[in-house]
């Protein structure tokens, strides 16, 4: 080591990090000031513009019709997500199966239902009676055990649940499949070496590790489904959006009623996001980031 290097090392060693100051970054301060100015402008605009009619928003925020529509939206979300997750699990297993016909059928299903917009699917299922005037149960090309009028069976609620569930199943299949594939195959081999059955291996080894990958996109998908329930208003389903539409069609107070829907959507999405974060922390315990 030369004399110059020794001198440099001595100078560095005498630096006290406790007295160090952060670097001044003018671009960060400028960006922060611009964001603050935009935020203030938005608040002033929301407060000062009388056309928002905040008194009307407060009047209808807890209206019985609005709350009933909110409850229907949440119900459709929960039922659609539950049925979609169950069917998505079956489809994911089919896609990972070594049995060719099951793998092809699951792949085709996912491709079709992910490719067709959910609005088109809802309208199609709502008008299924045009193709099948009668729904029946029986032996194919044989005797019929029971039959029903399609118009009586396919109500707006039935069409909404069917359309949302089938659409959701295609996305959940891909999410679950990705989570399972993310688990190291060596984990399965180790479980089998310890004497675990296939069911025990999946339930105790594969699934807990896969959930770390499955939970984040599933939470986002749940939130997307909640917002997607607004599409059922096109088939006269009494969800949150339809409820506020009924009111503003009568009062012509379009903007404040839409703000009522926005507030409730944001409130529910916030609660769901907090729940998603807790699940992520629970299944991420023991993982070093």
TrEMBL record:
<keyword id="KW-0813">Transport</keyword>
<keyword id="KW-0029">Amino-acid transport</keyword>
<keyword id="KW-1133">Transmembrane helix</keyword>
<feature type="transmembrane region" description="Helical">
    <location>
        <begin position="67"/>
        <end position="92"/>
    </location>
</feature>
<dbReference type="Pfam" id="PF00528">
    <property type="entry name" value="BPD_transp_1"/>
</dbReference>
<feature type="transmembrane region" description="Helical">
    <location>
        <begin position="230"/>
        <end position="248"/>
    </location>
</feature>
<comment type="similarity">
    <text>Belongs to the binding-protein-dependent transport system permease family.</text>
</comment>
<feature type="domain" description="ABC transmembrane type-1">
    <location>
        <begin position="66"/>
        <end position="273"/>
    </location>
</feature>
<feature type="transmembrane region" description="Helical">
    <location>
        <begin position="146"/>
        <end position="167"/>
    </location>
</feature>
<dbReference type="InterPro" id="IPR000515">
    <property type="entry name" value="MetI-like"/>
</dbReference>
<dbReference type="GO" id="GO:0043190">
    <property type="term" value="C:ATP-binding cassette (ABC) transporter complex"/>
</dbReference>
<keyword id="KW-1003">Cell membrane</keyword>
<protein>
    <submittedName>
        <fullName>ABC transporter permease</fullName>
    </submittedName>
</protein>
<dbReference type="GO" id="GO:0006865">
    <property type="term" value="P:amino acid transport"/>
</dbReference>
<feature type="transmembrane region" description="Helical">
    <location>
        <begin position="254"/>
        <end position="275"/>
    </location>
</feature>
<feature type="transmembrane region" description="Helical">
    <location>
        <begin position="104"/>
        <end position="126"/>
    </location>
</feature>
<feature type="transmembrane region" description="Helical">
    <location>
        <begin position="29"/>
        <end position="47"/>
    </location>
</feature>
<dbReference type="InterPro" id="IPR043429">
    <property type="entry name" value="ArtM/GltK/GlnP/TcyL/YhdX-like"/>
</dbReference>
<dbReference type="InterPro" id="IPR010065">
    <property type="entry name" value="AA_ABC_transptr_permease_3TM"/>
</dbReference>
<dbReference type="GO" id="GO:0022857">
    <property type="term" value="F:transmembrane transporter activity"/>
</dbReference>
<keyword id="KW-0472">Membrane</keyword>
<dbReference type="InterPro" id="IPR035906">
    <property type="entry name" value="MetI-like_sf"/>
</dbReference>
<keyword id="KW-0812">Transmembrane</keyword>
């Amino acid at each position: 080591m030369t004399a110059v290097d020794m001198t440099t090392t001595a100078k560095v060693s005498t630096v006290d990090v406790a007295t160090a100051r952060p670097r001044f970054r003018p671009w960060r301060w400028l960006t922060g000031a611009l964001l603050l100015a935009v935020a203030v402008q938005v608040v002033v605009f929301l407060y000062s513009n009388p056309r928002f009619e905040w008194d009307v928003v407060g009047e209808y925020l807890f209206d019985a019709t609005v709350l009933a529509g909110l409850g229907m939206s949440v119900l459709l979300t929960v039922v659609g997500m539950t049925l979609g997750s169950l069917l998505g699990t079956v489809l994911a297993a089919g896609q990972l199966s070594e049995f060719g016909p099951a793998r092809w059928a699951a792949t085709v299903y996912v491709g079709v239902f992910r490719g067709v917009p959910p609005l088109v699917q809802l309208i199609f299922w709502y008008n299924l009676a045009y193709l099948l005037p009668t729904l029946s149960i029986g032996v194919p090309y044989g005797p019929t055990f029971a039959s029903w009028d399609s118009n009586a069976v396919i109500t707006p609620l039935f069409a909404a649940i069917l359309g949302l569930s089938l659409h959701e199943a295609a996305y959940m299949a891909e999410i679950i499949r990705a989570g399972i594939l993310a688990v190291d195959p060596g984990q399965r081999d180790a479980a089998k070496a310890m004497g675990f059955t296939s069911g025990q291996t999946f339930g105790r080894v594969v699934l807990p590790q896969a959930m770390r990958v499955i939970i984040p996109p599933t939470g986002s998908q749940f939130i997307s489904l909640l917002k997607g329930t607004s599409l059922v208003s096109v088939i006269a389903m009494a969800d949150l959006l339809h409820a506020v539409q009924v009111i503003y069609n009568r009062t012509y107070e379009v903007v404040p009623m839409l703000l009522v829907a926005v507030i409730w959507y944001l409130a529910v999405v916030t609660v769901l996001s907090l729940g998603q974060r807790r699940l992520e922390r629970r299944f991420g315990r023991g993982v070093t980031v």
